[in-house]
Amino acid sequence: MTITLAQALSPNTFNVQAIFQFGLSVYQSQGFPVQSWQPGGVERTRLMAFSTMLADVVGNYIPTYTGAGFLDYATGLWLQLTAQELYNLIYNSAGFTQGNILLTVASGASGGTYAAGQLKATFQASGLSYLNAGTVVIPAGPGSVSALFQAEFAGAKYADPSNSGALFLTSAIPGVTLTNPGPTPNYSPVTHVGSGTGTLTLGGSPVGSHSVIISVTATSASSPVSASYSLDGAAPVALGITSSVTNLGGTGINITFNSGTGTSWAVNDSYSFTTPGSWITQQGNDQETDLALATRCRNRWASLSAIPTQSLYQLLATSAPTYGQQVTQCIVVPDGTINNKVNIVVAGPGGILPGTTITGLQSFITPRARGCDNPVVQSPASLNVTLAGNITCLASQFATVQTSVQTAMTSLVNAAGINGTIRIAAIIDAIMNIAGTVDAIGITINGSGSNLTLGNSSTFVLAALQPLNFTYVTQ
Amino acid sequence: MSTFYGSDTACVSDVGLIDLQVTSPALIIGQRLARLLQTPRGALALVSEPDGANRGWDIRQYALGRLSPSTTQVAQQQITNECLKDEEVQSVSVVVGPVSNGTLPISVSFVAASGPFQFTLNVTALTVTAVFGQ
After folding, report:
1. What is the ipTM for the molecules in this complex?
2. By CB distance 3.0 to 4.6 Å, which of A167, A309, B82, B118 could disulfide with A178?
């Protein structure tokens, strides 16, 4: 039997009948009366059993071996081996979500010391549980303590939002209640790129979700600082020379610029942060998919060149130790205003990544920048997306349709990614593919019947799906 | 011109330590029918036999149950149907029972191109033995 490369890569090439007929021809060439072999005959059945076994083994092994060294064909453990041996890349295993939970003790309640893993907090809304990562000393009431908790299992689904509502200890401690507020003030940590020693203090009462980048436009030893700001990825706006900013761009964000030692403010330094902050300090992730790992392998080629390409920075962002595995979305966009600035916009499976992750990625990428590139890692701005419309479904499947619609819309919006497009047609198609649905009309995205394109070449936006606003009609 | 039935390995409920070849149509067809009457319906599909899902009829099920006259008739028809699926069997007659000393005898008389043949399967709850006539 001779085979082509295409056949060797296909698991369907070696079917049972082909092998059986080949076996018959071998028997026949040796004089066996194969024409008289009837179903149920010993030799025929024996040959069919061998052919069935051989087809199963060969049909699985040969395509796997043939494709093992090729990124388009290798899968699972083979792809991981190829990535490690040929590209020196270790696949990203599933990671745990970590975040700070506030334990509040009522007056009169006694405290206690709890070793790591002794406290199990469960979110009522999601049913997901987290365990204390280290020893927690709960004070006697009245009092409170913030403790780091880690998801019970690794995975991206552990993405409970801040202030999630009912949060309780599996083994209740009298007088102790749990909450997961965002940080106070409600900002992510500030990520600093550059050599200046100045720092930012954030305050005010921010309104809405925003991402802010402060760029230093002139070097100075101390405050005031000459700077500009970019709000939600928009073009920079000059701040002039200032020591503080109140109500930045009408968002309620206040910034104070604090001098450091030596050169406080270095030209082209940038400071970035997002609001609101999150209780999550490390976003969990699912095990890296074959597609994502193969993409990282291909991006490896760019690291061999002295001339950087977009895929180089994508490789660095997704391969950074500890933080790279949290990145499931990454776009690299040369800045339209600053000619050596490269915007590296990242997001995770739960959307906006924690500030510590952005800082960690920046620290990894900055020393690996090529030439005079100024790579700036940042989160996209978050845009609330509300889907609405009228769905007709069978009364008997109303509950399952509702659940399936939620799952489908979550997947659809997540799949749009950074600066993606959410399409009305895709929403209708996803709804109509759900068993039990009869019709979907009047679909809107944020009140509009048109597609929604997130961001543009200078604005980076990620959708945040809000509670669905579909009206159901049963029949 | 006599019909050529080829040859096959002797086997009723298991192959022997040494493969013996049979060429007699009584044994080739008879043993083949005997094996199919010990094969659960659809088992041949596991070895990818075309139409394997429709072949096989395990007569040991009759040894586990109580056979009334009506169920005996049904059993005879079921066994007849299974035997007629063999393309070398032109006609067949089946007699089931009665049970004697815990053994259920099933007599199968079939006609092939080379003439009539007969065999009897003695079925217990654990074993099936075959006796081949001419």
Report:
1. 0.83
2. A167
Query: What DSSP designation does B60 have?
Result: H
CB A462 within 8 A of CB A454: yes
Q: List beta partners, residue A211.
A: A274
- Where is B112: in which H helix or E strand? strand B104-112
The two structure tokens encoding residue A404: 């399936």
Rg, Å, chain B Cα set: 15
| Ranges A252-266, A303-317, B78-92: which has the least confidence | A303-317
Q: Is A184 on the interface with B (CB under 8 A)?
A: no
**Which pair of structure tokens corresponds to residue B56?**
């096989």
DSSP 8-state secondary structure symbol assigned to residue B3: P
CA distance linking residue B40 with residue B21, whole number of Å: 25
Residue B46 DSSP code: G
Is residue B95 within 8 A of residue B76, CB to CB? The reply is yes
The radius of gyration computed from the CA coordinates of chain A, to the nearest angstrom, equals 29
pTM of the model: 0.69
pLDDT at A305: 74
> With the C-alpha atoms ordered A20, A22, A23, A29, is the resulting torsion angle positive or negative?
positive
Q: Which residues of B touch A14 (CB under 8 A)?
A: none
CA distances from B73 to A391, B36, B79, B81, B96 (A): 58, 20, 10, 12, 8
The whole-number average pLDDT for the span B1-11 is 80
CB-CB under 8 Å, A45 with B87 = no
Q: Spell out which residues of chain A touch residue B7, defining contact as CB-CB under 8 Å.
A: 33, 36
Q: Which amino acid is at A261?
A: T
pLDDT in tens, B23-75: 888 899 999 999 999 999 999 999 989 889 999 999 988 887 778 889 899 99
Name the residue among B4, B6, B51 with its Cβ closest to that of A37.
B6
State whether B39 and A40 contact (CB < 8 Å).
Answer: yes
Average pLDDT over residues A224-235: 86
In chain B, residues 76-95 whose CB comes closer than 8 Å to chain A? 86-88
pLDDT beyond 80 at A310: no
- Give pLDDT, residue B2: 63
Which of residues 31 through 90 in chain A touch B, CB cutoff 8 A?
33, 35-43, 45-46, 48-49, 51-52, 55
